[in-house]
Design brief:
Acts as a defensive agent. Recognizes blood group fucosylated oligosaccharides including A, B, H and Lewis B-type antigens. Does not recognize Lewis A antigen and has low affinity for monovalent haptens. By secondary structure, the protein is mainly β. The chain has no helices and 6 strands. It has strands at 7-10, 40-57, 69-74, 83-88, 96-112, 124-128.
């Protein structure tokens, strides 16, 4: 998991749910943003990788906070300049899904939910080349 060596950040932090929690290997912890416009979570892989797949594990409750999220990969730290790998339409509470990115190249992997009054919450993220 290339994300484990990266540097995480997110648009805001609610209740101490920091972005690093998406890489701690624990299914009972998760990131959490405030309710805001276009919330995001990002990992800077610190160098360009060819990404074959991204795995997302949803939190075990209130899992709807991942619905509609966009996964993008590229060399820009902002949420709109990179290429979309996948859209998470729905993901059940506690479930893990794998999204094929076909060798997309980039330094940043970003998960964001477009729209107003959205909350983004992730349990685990994996980035594999």
């Amino acid at each position: 998991n290339a994300a484990l060596w990266g540097k995480t950040s997110q648009s805001s932090i609610c209740s101490g749910s920091v972005p690093e929690l998406a890489l701690d290997g624990l299914l009972n912890s998760w990131t959490h943003t405030d309710s805001e416009t276009d919330p995001w979570w990002r990992v800077d892989l610190l160098k360009v990788y060819r990404v074959n797949r991204v795995t997302i594990t949803n939190r075990p409750n209130n899992g709807s906070r991942i619905n509609g999220a966009v996964i993008s990969i590229g060399n820009f730290p902002d949420i709109y300049s990179n290429t979309v790998c996948a859209v998470i339409s729905t993901l059940a509470d506690g479930a893990t899904d794998t999204f094929s990115c076909g060798g997309m190249e980039g330094r940043y992997v970003i998960v964001h939910i477009p729209g107003d009054q959205k909350i983004l919450s992730l349990s685990e993220v994996g980035v594999y080349g």
